[in-house]
Specification:
It is a single chain. The protein is mainly alpha-helical. It has one domain. The protein is built from 14 helices and no strands. The protein starts with a helix and ends with a helix.
């Protein structure tokens, strides 16, 4: 071999890389979850496909179920029982959309680690991805409910307003953040104490009656007077009222009077406070999850 080839081979063989060593394990945290958006999309598609696997009607069930719920509330509670609230079916359905989104995000997110324990043990990914994917699946299934609500409201003479649509987006953001924060906290705890899943199921039962869904907010004001302000410290109640303001108010015969009597004047102030509370819950949930996640694989049996 020529001397020049030998020297060049030796130069290529000796290579010094001045770079810190990195662990092959994924970086924890929600930021890393959204950096791996491709993997997150795969998880969401997998969850959606699993729900409709073997179904003849498939995605049509996402429209049939909320449509039948709206019909039941409209006929049974609005016509037969005869509540005094105008277009009571829309009033209830607005609350039902918010409550269902939150409950599904919280409940499915709590079970997400145990339900995907094979992936948690075998794949290197941020484990926060599973509760986040559960929230996005819940958001996906919220879409058909919104479509049905909009169609029903348009048939009743509703027209959208800028304030109403901004309030609706704020409500969705608030529930997504709060539900994900609680799901992170309880998903990690559910690995160590399997009773947590049952406890969450019981806890969400109280949500349906802790918001102005099957009763108007004016009833709370009549019963509790000035103390009803404490009721509005509940972010879920604020989210329900925001959606009712966006859709239900416009379906009544006098939207201005309905807004004045049934929607609190300072609703947005309470809602932004609720969003701040939800962000705090999300931060606490992330801290709790990171404290426990290193012990999660060994407890998944």
């Amino acid at each position: 071999m020529p001397e020049s080839d030998t020297s060049s081979s030796a130069a290529r063989a000796v290579r010094v890389v001045d770079a810190p060593l990195r662990s092959p394990a994924p970086e924890p945290g929600l930021r890393e979850v959204f950096r791996r958006r491709y993997l997150l999309r795969l998880l969401v598609r997998r969850e959606v496909a699993a729900r409709y696997q073997g179904s003849v009607l498939g995605m049509l069930w996402s429209y049939i179920n909320p449509l039948t719920q709206l019909f039941i509330f409209w006929v049974v509670m609005g016509v037969i029982i005869g509540r005094g609230t105008e277009t009571f079916g829309i009033h209830v359905f607005c609350g039902l959309i918010v409550v269902h989104f939150f409950v599904e995000t919280f409940g499915a997110g709590t079970r997400s680690i145990m339900r995907n324990k094979a992936l948690v043990r075998k794949m290197a990914m941020p484990r926060e991805m599973f509760p986040v994917a559960s929230m996005l699946v819940s958001l996906f299934h919220m879409g058909p409910q919104i479509v049905i609500l909009v169609v029903a409201c348009v048939l009743l003479g509703w027209t959208p307003t800028v304030v109403g649509m901004l309030g609706f987006l704020l409500a969705v953001l608030m529930m997504a953040v709060l539900g994900t924060g609680l799901a992170l906290m309880f998903a990690a705890a559910n690995v160590f104490f399997r009773d947590i899943g049952s406890f969450v199921g019981i806890l969400t039962n109280f949500v349906r009656f802790g918001v102005p869904m099957i009763y108007p907010f004016t009833l709370v004001e009549e019963r509790f007077g000035a103390a009803s302000a404490y009721y509005l410290y509940n972010p879920i109640a604020d989210a329900v009222l925001l959606v009712q303001q966006a859709f239900w108010v416009g379906t009544t015969s006098d939207p201005v009077d309905t807004q004045a009597h049934h929607i609190p004047d300072n609703l947005f102030a309470y809602s932004f406070l609720g969003l701040g509370t939800s962000l705090v819950v999300l931060a606490i949930g992330q801290i709790v999850f990171r404290k426990l996640e290193n012990k999660i694989p060994e407890r998944l049996t």
